Each structure stands twice: as C-alpha cells, then as structure tokens.
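Can anyone check this?
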Amino acid sequence: MDSIPGRPVSKNSKIVFAIAYAIWLAFVLVLASVPPVSRDALTHHLAVPKLWVEGGGLIEIPHVLFSYYPQLLDLLYTIPLLAGHDIAAKYIHFVFAALTALLIFSFVRRRLGASWGAIAGIMFLTVPLVAKLSVTVYVDLGLMFFTMAALYGAVLWLDDTSHIKWLLIAAVCSGLALSTKYNAIVSFIVLSLLVPFFYLNTRQNKDAEQINTVKYGVIFVSVSMLVFSPWLIRNLALTGNPLYPLQPGPFKVQVVETDTIQAATTAEEHAGLVTQYELGIQKKALGPLLTRKFVHEESLPYTLLIPVRIFFEGKDDDPKYFDGRLNPLLLVLPLLLIYFGRRVGFRPVESPLFGYYALLMVLLVFMTKDMRLRWVATIIPPLVVLATYSLYTMRRWLLSSGRSESVANFVTAAACAVYLLPNLSYASSLWAKVDPLPFVTGEQSYEEYRRAHLPEYGVVAAANEAVPEGGKLLVLYLGSRGYYFAVDAFPVNAVFTYLAETATSGQGIGDRLRELGYTHVMVHDHLFVNWVDSSDDATQARVAEFVSQRLVPVAIENGFSLYRITPP
C-alpha cells in the first residue's frame, strides 16, 4: 500500500480491487436496468431527444425551454431511443462515471502508485451523489468527466509548460463541459482564473512572465469558447440570445406582444409564444439568502454555513437539503491534507489548485443560487483526489513518527472504512428505493414498474388511450414531465394561466383551447388548486366556470385527473 509510482500491485491487492469494482459494477447495472422515472429524464434529457427522433432531427421546440440548453450528452441519448431501448441511456450516463474514475485512478497513480489510484476510484464511484446519478438519465456525470479532464490537462501542463498540447486539451475539455450543461459556465470561469494564476505563481521571474500569463489565459478561454460555439450560434440564430433562455446583459428575452399570441392558430405556435411571454415578464427570483430565509425558514448564521453543511446535511429530492448527498470526509480529509502534507513534505501543484477550485465553485454557487449539490458536483473528483492524498500522507506521517507499518495500515484501513460506510449505507437505501429485482427478474412488466414508481402514470396511460388522433393534450402542473405521453402533449402551464388571466369568461377559455386543437387536459389536482387559490377573484371565477361547464372527467387516480374539453 506504499507510495511508489510504477511499483507493481500485489496479487492479493489486485484480487481485492477486482472484486470490489466487479461488485459495484454489478450493483449499478442492476439498479440502472429499470425504466427511467427520474424527474429530469422525463422533462428533458429523454423528453427532448424523443421529440428530435419523432421530428427527424434537431428541430426547434419553442415551448420546451430545455431544448435550447447545451445538449452534448442528450445527443448521445438519441441512439438508444432510435433503437427503442431507453434504459440503455442510463448505461451511457454511467460510462462517464466510470471514465471519471479512470481519470482519477490515472491521476493518483502518477503520484502515489496503482493501489492508491484504485482506492481513489472506489472512493469516487461510491459517493452517494455519484451513485444516484449513475442510475439515472442525467448529464451531470458527463459534466464531471469533462471538468476533471480539464483539470487533469491543466495540471500536466503546469508540470511542464513546454508541452502546450495539455493546455489545449484542458481547454477543449472545458468547452465540452460547457456543451454539456449551462452550469459549466461557473466552472469555466473558475478555471479561466486559476489556470493563468497558477502558471504565474509557479514562475520564478513573475514580472517577465506576465505577457505569457495573459497569452495562455486567452488561449484557454478562446479554445473553450470555440468548442462551445456551435450551441451559442444555434441559439443566437433561433432566438437572438446565444445563452437563451438565460438573460445575461444585452441578450434579454424580448417580451412577446399579446396581439401576437392572440394571432396564433396552432397549439405549437401558441405554446411557444406564451412560454416566451412568461419568460420575458417573469419577476426576478429571490436571491439565495432571501430564498433560505422566506422559503426554507433558515436564520442567516445557519444559511452562511451552507458551504460546510452540504457535506453533512444532504437529502435526495429535498431542495432545502440540497437535493443530494455527499460524504463528510470529502471535506474533512482534504482539510487534514494541509496538516499531514506539510509534515511529510508532500506538496504537488494540484493540491492547492484543486482546493481553490472546490472552494471557489462552492462559494460562487452559494452566492448566486439556492444551493443544489448537482450544481457543484464537479468538485467531487478533485476532492476525492485530495482525500486520497490525505490518507497517503497520514500513513506516511504515522510511519515517520515511529509507528509500525501494521499500525499505519490499520489506521489507514479504518479511515477508509469510515469513509465508505455512509456510502454503502446510502447504496442500500438507494436499492430499496429503486427496487429493481421485480423488473429485472421479469416479475414486473415495463408498464407495471412505471405505474409503481410514477403516481401520475395511470392517468398518463389513460390520456394515451383517450386523446384522439389529431387531438392535443394540455398538461398542467406535472413539472413538464412529458416523456411517457404517446399523444401530442403540451406540458406547458403558461398556456392555461395566460388564457385564464386574459379571457373574458370561462367559456372563452374553453373556446380558445378547442380552437387551438386541445381536446383534453390533464392536471395535478393539488398544485392546480393551489394556483387557483393564489389567483385573483376574477381569474378564479373564470376557471370555475370553465371547469364546471366545459370539462368532463375521464380518469382520476393518485391525485391526477384527465378531462375532456367539450366543444362550444
């Protein structure tokens, strides 16, 4: 377990690592081998590629704002959809976790040897957030991979700046990260600052290197943006805003005139226009501090602890607790590295680079948005590297302090166990939640699994049967989850809210919906009632008239309802 790069791993160690990786691979593959039911998969990561497949290409979908996001991985998901096997999209996503683990292994092996690299790979794969993402059709694992590859390339270049190819590779990977998700803009900004900073910081004659520092910074930014540019050009051509639907600086969404909306003659055109209208008039969201105060009811001192709390308080599917889980030792071990690294003289250039990267990422997201762990997920790979370095330096410190090798090995193994226990506990709860065996063994059909894990699916299935050919389905307050609809469905709340607020009567709402081609409407009852209750009296009266005079119940199940809209 000692730290000599190039030293062959013992046969027993190889067997142990092979068994550990095989067990984890089997665990993930079984968990992933069930129908997709995760939120973002059904709203855009599968829903948008499905519309592309049905439309025969990368068609514009104005009423789906997600379709304007960078979608490098979503393009890959069209492959299993074309083959009629959407479960395989989860395997594609997991491949990026495996590739990131391979990068971490390669990185740590360069410094410490293969055994430590193998330990680091397991430490990464079992992090609760990574485990959860490994069995879903999201894109965050791709974002982690490309960002870690950019960091890897930057470190190789800083080790020997005569090989500029590594800087170019880092920039290309940063551009691919930007092409995967808008969240990568934060990591791109951080890398664009840190790469030239660490270049200059490692030069002996800093004054003479200032021009080169600027030059290399410009190269990194330019190449990254060049790789990202196809997505910017697409959005600029379609909307006039290269970062649509974001609203930075001069590229603000133009407010659609109401006359233009009234002139729409199809459901597609109308849904796109009201979506853009709502985006243009939306009020500025509460800042992160106000959101924590008024939405999550937290005190300011407690809120200011979020950069630390994210390592201890995470909970899946709960925005108050950051919608995911990390591991506390991902914070503790890198901090201990500061102490142990100094004691044993272990100071590779990447340690401060990775540390500053993680710190700046967390602080920037914390200051600009209500924290979600997936928005800072790119800190996980570098923190795993630092945590591994910490275990290594702790072991070296024990040996240099006169402890026997058996004691050093025991303490290191104990620390690894303390790290892995919460990961494995989470894995157990994830298994119980996904419950894959009935489906994998054939006891449960594809349809039955979806019904068991999606409360709305019974009404979705009813809509697929009830909506006639050529008819349109308006879907309200389903969180834009449109993937499982086999009919022409529009999960666009703005279609109804706009009509309810601008029509002269409830009959007018029904007439306009029928005019646009809508024959049915599906609602999440509780959320729909909440919206009605929050509306003004006139809107409530129009909605009540529409519901009582123009809607006929077709199916009601688990708090979701399907109605037929009667003709005038």
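Reply from J.R.: I decoded it. DSSP finds 27 helices and five strands in the chain.
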